[in-house]
Amino acid sequence: MKNLRMKSARAAKDMSQEELAKICNVSRQTINAVEKGDYNPTINLCIAICKALDKTLDEIFWIQ
Amino acid sequence: MKNLRMKSARAAKDMSQEELAKICNVSRQTINAVEKGDYNPTINLCIAICKALDKTLDEIFWIQ
DNA sequence: ACAAAATGTAAAAAATACTTGACAAAATGC
DNA sequence: GCATTTTGTCAAGTATTTTTTACATTTTGT
Question: Count H helices, E strands: chain B?
């Protein structure tokens, strides 16, 4: 399932997938896949994403 | 670094590592390693752990 | 002290996250 | 309309999580 909260938080920072990827030290494809929601990233990556987007884990990755 | 919040939440439920492992559908060693903090579990495992312990991601895995 | 349960740890194999390179489609700005 | 950026996707390879088996140590209860 798509992670629209992540997409929205990224949009709020006017950040491309590639920019976010660089900050998180992963490939653009990985960010794309996480946002598309078709897999299961590690917690360290999730934390890096949240820090980059000024959000917490609950705000981006917790169930709702 | 040890995850003492996880250890404490597990203790509060009087649950062994093995019981928690069963609920999360992973091995006891995996739970032990996560609690010991020497690696980087997937977000799905973190979510399963949090649900089993009645906690959220921020409570157990977010930086403090 | 003793038995049983719980935890720590290690090594090899299996599963899967992530990378790299590449190309097409869609969106954005001029 | 055109060029540029951004996003979507695929396939093959690498890195790391997780499993399995096994044994040692520590803790708990009686």
Answer: 5, 0
Task: Tell me the three state secondary structure of residue B35.
Answer: helix
Q: Which of B40, B47, B63 sits opposite A42 (nearest CB)?
A: B40
Task: Name chain A contacts of B41, Cβ cutoff 8 Å.
Answer: 42-43
Nucleotides of C under 7 A from a protein CB: 5-11, 16-22
With CB atoms and an 8 Å threshold, state whether B42 touches A40: yes
Q: Which domains does chain B have, with CATH numbers?
A: 4-58 (1.10.260.40)
What are B42's strand-pairing partners? A42
Q: Give the tokens for residue B26.
A: 């992973």
Inter-residue contact A59 to B43 (CB < 8 Å): no
Its pTM stands at: 0.95
CA B57, CA A58: separation in Å to the nearest integer? 6
Please tell me the distance from the alpha carbon of residue B52 to that of residue B26, in angstroms, as a whole number.
13
Q: What is the pLDDT of residues A6-56, one digit of tens each?
A: 999 999 999 999 999 999 999 999 999 999 997 899 999 999 999 999 999
